[in-house]
Amino acid sequence: MGRRSKDITDFVKDLIAIEDIETKKRIYKKILAITYKQGIYPSSIHDFYSARGRGELSGFTAPAINLRSMTYDLARAIFRVAIRNNSGAFIFEIAKSEMGYTAQPPCEYSAVILAAAIKEEYRGPVFIQADHTQVNLKKFKEAPEEEMDYLKALIEEAVEFGFYNIDIDSSTLVDLTQATVKKQQELNFETCAKLTQFIRRIEPRGITISVGGEIGEVGHKNSTAEELRVFMEGFKERLRKGLAGISKISVQTGTSHGGVVLADGSIAQAALDFDTLKILSWLARSEYGLSGAVQHGASTLPSEAFHKFAECETAEVHLATEFQNMIYDSRHFPQELKEKIYQWLKVNAASERKIGETDEQFFYKTRKKALGPFKREIIGLADSLRDAIAAEIEVKFEFLFKQLNVINKKELVDKYVSLKRVISRKRKQGAAVAHDGQGAD
Question: Is residue 188 part of a domain?
């Protein structure tokens, strides 16, 4: 493996260094061919989540991790943690907005994750997810069909590059000014059903893409049981008969993306409502056969909170900002590069600065926007520096895997998730073949 392992890192560096998207796609195909030979398969978590909805699995929460920077290094760290702990129930994800400001299109993100699996000699299914495939409310109001076409194109591109897990976020369309909950949620469940039908039309044969819905926009009011029921009943009515629906549902219970930063740069304590999370997870499973509720915006919560997700039977928790913070705030991250980034933000993100905002608040809020423009400089750091930063964050990954109780879940994942090799969708639309002797029927 030594020679191939060295070459895969070279592939990754070439992939990140170049800007031409067609060249990136060619490198993705080369990496994908190697993954299949090594027993690594981009996969859907749908069947695993369906088993949980039937009550066959319980007691854990799958971490869905957004990697905004140092993606290769941190993905390798995650795979090392997974191998040590015999875990298989974890997801790599990136949101529509993150693809933009981190300059990581689907072909690149997927290729880098798979390359990390090759490098660490991981085996089995790898779950890659399009997080927050979000409807832009303003654009939807102005031209709904154009916004839907844009989202469909984004979904199709993601699926082409192994994103077999798609989170639809049409919660932006919830209108709380309406008199009834059904009217408030109507555009949300209608849009989610339409996009789910589109996904079922384009998914590779033999693979049921895991689709997530969302009933409450993160950072807004907490979700209720009535909202969940109204959404699900409306969604089922709008979804064409015979099609697989969603496998999970995102709710709002008191968090916000990135946390709320105080004037001194510290993060305000979030008042997360675990009772609501527990109730909504139970309702989603018992009444609708979903895997449970999904919690967004959780990475900056205090350490002592994480074990509660598994106790509440939360299906999935999304984690992003804290890993970005750990990169920037690491003692191994070069101070001169950090200062260069902050100077860039003063010019290029000046319009985002609010009156009365401190430097700490401004930089904390905007520094994610520099990850794309400085991507090549970050990947160009000495291997020793990147390894040291990744080692610090690997400790956090280990802690989270244990707190979320995804230890020793590999055999369960292998039981329910069939490994499928997807043949070129261009030449043979939707074709897939089962991998002999692996996974469930």
Answer: yes
Q: Is the pLDDT of residue 438 over 70?
A: no
The three-class DSSP label of residue 165 is strand
409, two tokens: 């879940």
Is residue 12 a part of any domain in this protein?
Answer: yes
Listed residue (338, 363, 341) closest to 352, CA to CA: 363
Cα–Cα distance list, 382 to 53, 120, 385, 386 (Å): 46, 20, 5, 6
Cβ neighbours of residue 188 closer than 8 Å, sequence gap 6 or more = 170, 171, 173, 174, 214, 215, 231
CB 69 within 8 A of CB 101: no
For the chain, the farthest-separated pair of C-alpha atoms sits apart, in whole angstroms, at 65
Residue 259 in this model has a pLDDT that exceeds 90: no
Q: What is the DSSP letter of 338?
A: H
The tally of domains found in the chain comes to: 1
Cα distance between residue 181 and residue 176, in whole Å: 8
Of 341, 376, 335, residue with least CA distance to 70: 376
Whether the pLDDT of residue 377 is over 90: the answer is yes
State the pLDDT at residue 277: 92
Confidence of residue 263 (pLDDT cuts 50, 70, 90): low
DSSP letter string, 214-273: ESS-TTSSPP-HHHHHHHHHHHHHHSPTTS---SEEEE-SS--TT-PBPTTSPBPPP---
∠ Cα 342 303 257 (to 5°): 50
pLDDT over threshold 60, residue 409:
yes
Determine the structural domain holding residue 354 and report its residue range: 2-416
Q: Evaluate whether residue 423 is within a structural domain.
A: no
pLDDT of residue 220: 60
Looking up residue 338, the CATH number of its domain turns out to be 3.20.20.70
pTM: 0.92
pLDDT in tens, 186-232: 999 999 999 999 999 999 999 999 999 999 765 467 899 999 999 99
Name the CA radius of gyration of the chain, rounded.
21
- Identify the pLDDT of residue 264: 54
For residues 372 and 101, is the Cβ–Cβ distance under 8 A? yes
